[in-house]
Amino acid sequence: MKKIALGASGVRVAQMGTGTWSWGDGMYWGYGDGYGEPDIRAAFDASVRAGIDFFDTAEIYGFGKSEKFIGQFARADAAAVQVATKFFPLPWRLTRNQIVAALRGSLKRLGREYVDLYQIHWPSPLLSLETMMDGMAETVEKGLTRAVGVSNFNATQTRRAHARLAKYNIPLASNQIQFNLLERGPDFGGLTETCRELNVTIIAYSPLQYGMLTGKYTPDHTPRGARSRQFTAAYLAQIQPLIATLKEIGEKYGGKTSSQVALNWVMQRGALPIPGAKTVKQLNENAGALGWDLSADDMALLNDSSARVSKNGQRES
Ligand SMILES: NC(=O)c1ccc[n+]([C@@H]2O[C@H](COP(=O)([O-])OP(=O)(O)OC[C@H]3O[C@@H](n4cnc5c(N)ncnc54)[C@H](OP(=O)(O)O)[C@@H]3O)[C@@H](O)[C@H]2O)c1
Fold first, then answer.
1. Does the C-beta of 55 come closer than 6 Å to ligand 1?
2. Separation of CA 274 and ligand 1 centre (Å)
3. Measured in angstroms, how far is the CA atom of residue 216 from the centroid of ligand 1?
4. Rounded to 5, what percent of the chain is helix, strand, coil?
């Protein structure tokens, strides 16, 4: 498995990770309805077997269940996996000490002494970025994390976080953002450029656009549950030309699926995708995005096709 550096932190992780929001989350993903613990345990094992030994979680995923599952599944050999988790700036968390305390809570659930990456989940109107970074620096100094990152930060916020951490001689390792063929906002708002300039690795969340880039959802087969509000039949009708392009391109590479092509596009863009998988079948399919490269011509084709259908596409020129 090719490893990539998380910015200048010195931490290296697999070039693709596994996202674990759905592991224990009933509210958005419907955990317990159609998939459960045996499925995600099998997905975890398959992930490690495939060399995808970097897991992304957060204290709020399933209100701690996702972290607990990872701790439980990795118990036999905690050192065999690398873990990233996140601090959520709940409105009563207003001091740097609360960041340290939150990470200690995550570590307890994970059954680990430290994580490989600790991230601020979202910026907050109540807690300044500078205070957040002071707290993050303390988690590094206390040996509770090897690297620090942010998530959902725009270009200006990324610069501020980077500058504050520099006072402690700590690099900002990563910014975890929604980035996929249907969500190209970071390309057009200057964020991908800023991250490149500052050597901040982009971790691409929802790299399959919540499953929409798998091609399994169509105007006649829309997703159930919380996703049904956002991903309507009209939305799915609009993205079908891109799905067709993904499938056509996949054929040229010996029958790669649209998910595999979509994930390969993210990696070719220099970002680290963390697709979520509910089952071993999904995990193994996503692992098939590794070990081959889309050509420059096919990248161009995909960029063009995505710009036509993504909501940010009209800003590309
Ligand atoms: N920092 C943040 O604010 C933030 C926000 C969102 C996500 N994340 C992170 O990013 C990770 C991934 O994002 P995500 O889970 O939102 O979306 P995603 O990776 O784009 O989509 C995951 C979903 O797509 C479906 N799927 C995945 N692989 C498939 C395959 N090969 N074939 C068919 N269906 C497949 C599954 O749902 P169905 O089977 O139900 O369709 C799966 O739960 C999360 O787990 C989390 O770690 C972070």
1. no
2. 8
3. 14
4. 45, 15, 40
Q: Tell me the C-alpha distance between 5 and 199, whole Å.
A: 10
Residue 61 token pair: 């995923």
Q: Would you call 61 a catalytic residue per the annotation?
A: yes
Which residue from 16, 21, 106 has its CB within 8 A of the most atoms of ligand 1, so it is best to mutate?
21
| End-to-end Cα separation, the chain, in angstroms | 36
Catalytic residue among 61, 205, 210, 217: 61
Give the E-state strand segments of 53-181 in sequence order: 54-56, 82-87, 117-120, 148-151, 172-178
Instruction: Please tell me the pTM assigned to this model.
Output: 0.97
Instruction: Kindly report, residue by residue over 28-42, the tens digit of the pLDDT.
Output: 999 999 999 999 999
CA of 25 to the centre of ligand 1 (A): 12
Q: Could you report the per-residue pLDDT of 167-222, keeping only the tens digit for each? A: 999 999 999 999 999 999 888 889 999 999 999 999 999 999 999 999 999 999 99
pLDDT (tens digit, 9 = 90+) per residue, 258-314?
Answer: 999 999 999 999 999 999 999 999 999 999 999 999 999 999 999 999 999 876 544
Contact by Cβ (8 Å): 97, 142: no
Beta bridge partners of 86: 119
In the block, which residue shows the tokens 């996949």?
A: 250
